[in-house]
Each structure stands twice: as structure tokens, then as C-alpha cells.
Amino acid sequence: MRKRFTGLLILAAMAASCASEPEAKPSADSFCVMEEGSGGEKAVQRTLRSDRFDTTFYLTTEEWAQRLGVYLREARAGAINTCDYAPRPKQGSKGAGARFSWTPSGAPVWESVPQEKVTRYDVNGVHVESTYWLARLSVECRLPGDLAEASRKVLFRAELSNLMNSERRNDAEARKRQIELLYILAGRAADALGCEGDPLKGDPVVKPLPAA
Q1: Bridge-partner residues for 99, per DSSP?
Q2: Bigger pLDDT: 18 vs 183
Q3: Contact at 8 Å (CB) between 59 and 192?
Q4: What is the pLDDT of residues 72-119, one digit of tens each?
């Protein structure tokens, strides 16, 4: 995937900004596609607790990379909704959704969530934090070309919301499953961007950390 998408952000440095939110698409050339039998598909199934699920794509990988490039070049805040997974049959508004953004180095992971509601994990050497329904990770993503300097001033943030856990607030295994899916999606996204040094590699091995 890296070879295919490494040049997208160099192109994105020249892309025009798009202010409106993307509309859902029935299918897309997206890193959110989970191939049958893949570790990603199994992670979605475990997170949703359903063998069958539907995926909503908001952007193709190319569109997503271009938009992130514009956000980085213009130092613009805001997360980009990328894809959602919902169990089949549908259970109201419950499901999992992935978003990505840039965040200043040193910025807090949580601004209004009490620390006692957040659990912390190590995943293959990457620090991940999660409430019962929202997991976040932030890593360095050094980019080549015109965005190299800007990429050294921020961190790449991946976020997974998971309303399937709304009734499992104290379920440690449910949090672990959503973190596994977050890490897989973040790794695919980092490959698509062409982040140098493979900051998110390997299958996720989730280890709880002591409370702060």
C-alpha cells in the first residue's frame, strides 16, 4: 500500500481546500475496506460483536490523503470522518467510526474527560488511550516533499468511536477489541500517507498500562 500512496500527500500540497463535509458513498477505493478473512475483518467483527457488517465510506484513500494534506499545509484543526462500520442487522445508531487529524505535539489527548475514565495501553510500543467508547492514538508521521517541515511540528492522530460499547462501560475486553481495530486502521492510514519509519507496524498486541 505504501508504494501506491506515498506520493499522494505531495500532490495534496497543491490541492484546493474543500470546506463541505463529504457525503457517504456505497463503496470506495479505501484503506477502510476489510478483505474477507483478513485480520482487519476479524477486528471489525470482534468490535461489533457481529460476523456480518456494513461499511460506509466517506472518502476514497486519495481524497482522504489530499484533504489531510490541505489541513496540514494550512495548519487547520479538525478531524476527518473517514468510514463507519455497523453490524448487520442494524442496531439503531450503534457502530464504530474512524476519524483522523493532525494535533500539535504536546497537546492533551483529552480536554474535558476526567482522567479516571481513561485507560492507557501500550500497543507495539505506541501509547493508546481509551474511554469505554472512544479510543485515540497519536504518533509522529514524518512526510517527504513539500509537507516535510509541517509534518515535523505535529502528530498524526487516529480516533475510533464505538457506540457498541455504550452498555459495556467496565468491559476491559471490549476496550481491547476497539483498540485493536483502531491500531489496524491507523497503520493502514499511516501507510497510505507514506509516514517514514513505519510508526505503526505489526499485528496489534494490546497491553494495559498502570493507572496514571
Answers
A1: 81, 159
A2: 183
A3: no
A4: 999 998 999 999 999 998 887 899 999 999 998 887 776 777 777 899
pLDDT in the model for residue 102 = 96
Check: CB of residue 138 under 8 Å from CB of residue 129: no
CA dist 167 and 169 (Å) reads 6
Q: Where are the alpha helices (DSSP H) in the chain?
A: 2-5, 8-12, 39-48, 61-73, 148-151, 172-193
Please provide the size of the chain in residues.
212
Q: What does pTM read for this prediction?
A: 0.86
> Angle CA(58)–CA(15)–CA(197) in degrees, nearest 5?
80
DSSP classification of residue 104? E
91, with CB counted inside 10 A (0-12, 13-18, 19+), is middle
Q: 170 — phi, psi (to 5°)?
A: -115, 20
Contact partners, residue 191, CB within 8 Å, separation at least 6: 1, 2, 5, 31
Question: Does an H or E element contain 26, and which?
Answer: none
Taking a C-beta distance cutoff of 8 angstroms, is the pair 40, 187 a contact?
Answer: no
Q: What is the sign of the dihedral through the CA atoms of 23, 26, 28 and 30?
A: positive
The answer to whether 103 touches 154, Cβ cutoff 8 Å, is yes
CA angle 81, 83, 85 (to 5 degrees): 135
Q: How far is CA 135 from the centre of its chain?
A: 9
